[in-house]
Write a structure and sequence with these properties.
The protein is α/β, with parallel strands linked by helices and 347 residues long. The protein folds into two domains: 5-140 and 278-319, Ribonuclease Z/Hydroxyacylglutathione hydrolase-like (Metallo-beta-lactamase, Chain A); 146-273, Rossmann fold (3-Layer(aba) Sandwich). It is 20% helix and 24% strand. Residues 329-347 have low confidence and may be disordered.
């Protein structure tokens, strides 16, 4: 029995009459997390995890009807029973478990299995069919330890501060930026933020996530105020006039794509740090195995290699074409409207 089918609007569950992360407006949307490729404006109602409600509200249109449920809480939607389970991607990110007629499906959304202090850790969920992302679904993607990456980031920042330079560290405004802030050593110097980052960081703090003190970068009155500081900004900021305010600065980018030889050079970066909020190759395979699923749908990313690997081991697998994007390989922000407006806390 197929509990989900692919439609022009997204993944649809007929038994429950709802969509999971639709890419067009629908009557009833179940949302795994608040990134723009998974949370589309205009639906009549949204259901998401309680920890992710405020983040989602900040990303959707004013007045959006959002219902939050706790992790593991069961909800009856028409003929289907659903529950949300931690995905470990960003604050409030969830896997969606759907049960109907004795069949269980799980939609992963985006996920990572390495825990970090800014969101609830990933929990494997047993199912018959698993719908998984494959953003980094190639054997070359094997992440270094988080501790190692943050030693590199803090060492880079410390060296720049000693040389009188500002460190500009690029990471997506929602999720990656807060994870970066959590791993910084505030003893090195001030931590400044772009407006889009500061806004989301405030929501994380409201959600009980402990982070080092930060200051809105727009409040700096002169270049001297940022000397020795680290500035956390979304990727698009580096190509805008916004970054010129920091004078002599060194630019780094935190992304899984920094594992690829030449990626740093291609973007004219001083440093690249391989830090991703998605599973790498071994973690992807381990997560699939942990579900016990006999069938796997593979979405956005390197679907072909993952499908072949699974099929060679006797698992029924297929690639499913969606509009999900995973971690972009270009340094642009996921929503063109998110710009630093020049006022603290604004997008």
């Amino acid at each position: 029995m197929s509990l989900l089918r692919l439609t022009p609007k997204g993944l649809y569950c007929e038994a429950g009459d709802f969509f999971v992360d639709p890419w067009e407006p629908v009557d009833r949307a179940v949302i795994t997390h608040a990134h723009g490729d998974h949370a589309t404006w205009g639906s009549y109602s949204y259901l998401t995890s309680t920890p992710g409600m405020n983040v989602l509200r900040a990303r959707l249109e004013m007045g959006a009807r959002i219902r939050g449920v706790e992790y593991g809480e069961t909800v009856r939607l028409n003929g289907a029973t659903i529950s949300l389970h931690p995905a470990g991607h960003i604050l409030g990110s969830s896997q969606v478990r759907i049960e109907h007629g004795g069949e269980v499906w799980v939609v992963s959304g985006d996920y990572k299995t390495d825990p970090d202090p800014t969101c609830t850790p990933f929990e494997p969920v047993r199912c018959h069919t698993f719908v998984t992302e494959s953003t980094f679904g190639l054997p070359i993607y094997r992440w270094p330890s988080q501790a190692e990456v943050f030693r590199e980031i803090n060492g880079w920042w410390r060296a720049n501060a000693a040389a009188g330079r500002t460190s500009l560290l690029l990471g997506y405004a929602l999720g990656k930026a807060q994870r970066l802030i959590a791993g910084l050593d505030p003893g090195i110097g001030p931590i400044l933020t772009h407006g889009a980052v500061e806004r989301m960081t405030g929501i994380y703090r409201q959600g009980g996530i402990e982070l080092p003190p930060t200051r809105y970068a727009g409040a700096a009155e002169s270049r001297a105020d940022a000397t020795g500081a680290i500035v956390i900004a979304p990727p698009y900021a580096d190509s805008s006039i916004w970054s010129r305010r920091f004078g002599d600065h060194s630019t780094g980018f935190a992304s899984g794509w920094m594992m690829v030889r030449g990626a740093r050079r291609q973007r004219s970066l001083d440093r690249g740090f391989a830090l991703s909020d998605h599973v790498d190759w071994p973690s992807l395979l381990a997560a699939i195995e942990a579900t016990g699923a006999g069938e796997v749908w593979v979405t956005h990313g390197y679907t072909g290699p993952v499908v072949r690997w699974l099929q060679e081991r006797g698992i029924e697998a297929r690639a499913v074409q969606t509009r999900f994007e995973g971690e972009r390989d270009e340094p642009v922000e996921e929503e063109a409207g998110q710009r630093d407006s020049g006022a603290a806390g604004q997008p």
